[in-house]
Design a protein that fits this description.
By secondary structure, the chain is α+β, with helices and mostly antiparallel strands. It contains 13 helices and 19 strands.
Length: 425
């Protein structure tokens, strides 16, 4: 591999030291880091790795003067690179790559290449490189912000699945050519974004409301935003021709294909607890199945499946307990062989209660936050005594809440709020 001459530090680097490089790196929840490209990235095929990012690359034991080979994967294309620790009095850790990877970067962003060739300054608008750690040691999937992989997207990609089919993670990855982890997995090769709602692990409260799926965006801590790469990609999917393929997980390792979806409305803010149980604002993306189809699981099946999952997680569910119901996926549904769920005719909410929907949240007494495409005020149904706790699916146990209050009831379930809802009757 060609040996690089260290690049002299810029005035900004001399002024800020390692903090200068730290500002151009950030970490997302899970095995992902983001590098904001800069002059050395475009012109010298290298970048400094600050201390806070070194753990991601598993190089804590790298000694001065030593190198470690790494591999980048851009779709199916492999690029060899390495990380070295310099032998200077104050050693730096830098990542370097060959001309083949630099050529892909230059082809994706010719305007930025020309900018750095003709200007000495930096810019805050440069594109980012997303690096996702693979299961293989020192192998990483990479993706350039808003740039397709040249020649990687086939003329036509047909999803070889039908709604209700169940896959393991390896099969899902092989079909879509996407990464192995994450709730949103972009695949430049298939032109798709795999969306995963994992009810066994995620703190999010994704749910079907009527025929619309309310999906919580990416970002496990703090206030979420549309600017995060995957959230932005979800919003702009139709504009860029990206297909959205939705999976739900009710049993660890089993991904149920719900179908191809598209945004049904603009995202809105709601409040949920983060991974540290702190209440924060999140982005909710209303999605609908393409072709106005119904989900392969009927509402009642979905509700009971999630509630049985919650009981198992809390240790209150035992398949052998007298009178307990086995999960629907174990009642002859054969999810592991890809059989779709047969829809039930029993509605989740009693028809009498549906007709009496007031258009005003029955907890905060505020009007519905928006109206549906049919002009109906949008509220979510809630059982005062949860079905998982023995509540009945009857009008007297059903109220209509705005999305914020509905999330609040499922996150906090405060006795005062329960009493207030009961008094509605």
């Amino acid at each position: 591999m060609h040996e690089h001459t260290p690049v002299p530090p810029s005035p900004e680097e001399e002024a800020f030291g390692e903090d200068f490089h730290s500002l151009s790196w950030s970490a997302e929840p899970g095995p992902v880091v983001i590098k904001k490209t800069d002059r050395p990235f475009f012109l010298f095929r290298e970048t400094i790795i600050p201390e806070k990012i070194r753990e991601f690359f598993e190089i804590g034991d790298l000694q001065p003067g030593k190198k470690r080979a790494i591999v980048f994967w851009l779709g199916e294309q492999r690029f060899d690179a390495f990380i070295e620790k310099t032998s200077h009095l104050s050693p730096q850790t830098r990542m370097m790559w060959k001309a083949d990877f630099a050529a892909v970067l230059h082809a994706a962003y010719p305007t930025w290449l020309e900018f750095f060739k003709t200007n000495r300054g930096e810019s805050g608008d440069t594109p980012s490189l997303y690096i996702t750690r693979r299961h293989n040691s020192h192998h990483y999937d990479v993706a350039f912000e808003d740039a397709p992989v040249p020649g990687a997207v086939p003329a036509e990609f047909s999803v070889p699945l039908k709604p209700g089919d169940t896959l393991d993670n390896d099969t899902l990855r092989a079909i879509f050519h996407c990464g192995p982890e994450g709730i949103m997995r972009h695949s430049p090769k298939t032109g798709s974004l795999v969306i995963v709602s994992d009810h066994t692990r995620s703190p999010y409260e994704d749910a079907w409301v009527n025929n619309f799926f309310h999906y919580t965006g990416r970002g496990l801590g703090g206030k979420q935003g549309i600017s995060l790469r995957e959230n932005k990609m979800l919003v702009e999917a139709k504009t860029h021709g990206v297909r959205l393929c939705l999976f739900e997980v009710f049993e660890a390792g089993h991904y149920v294909y719900m179908g191809e979806v598209e945004p049904s409305d603009k995202p809105f803010l709601s409040r949920q607890s983060d991974s540290g149980k702190n209440i924060r604002e999140v982005c909710i993306f209303p999605l609908k199945l393409v072709g106005h189809k119904r989900p392969p699981l009927h509402y009642r099946d979905l509700q009971e499946t999630k509630e049985e999952l919650a009981r198992r997680k809390s240790g209150t569910f035992s398949p052998a307990a007298p009178g307990s119901r086995a999960p629907h996926r174990l009642q002859g549904r054969r999810m592991h062989e890809g059989t779709s769920f047969a829809p039930r005719q029993e509605p989740l909410v009693p028809a009498d209660a549906q007709r009496q929907s007031p258009g005003i949240c029955q907890l905060c007494n505020q009007p519905a936050p928006f109206s549906t495409s049919n002009g109906e005020p949008y509220l979510e149904t809630h059982h005062i005594q949860w079905l998982s706790r023995g509540g009945e699916n009857v009008m007297e146990n059903t109220v209509f809440l705005c999305p914020n209050c509905h999330r609040k009831m499922h996150v906090l379930d405060l006795p005062a709020d329960v009493a207030r809802l009961k008094n509605r009757f």
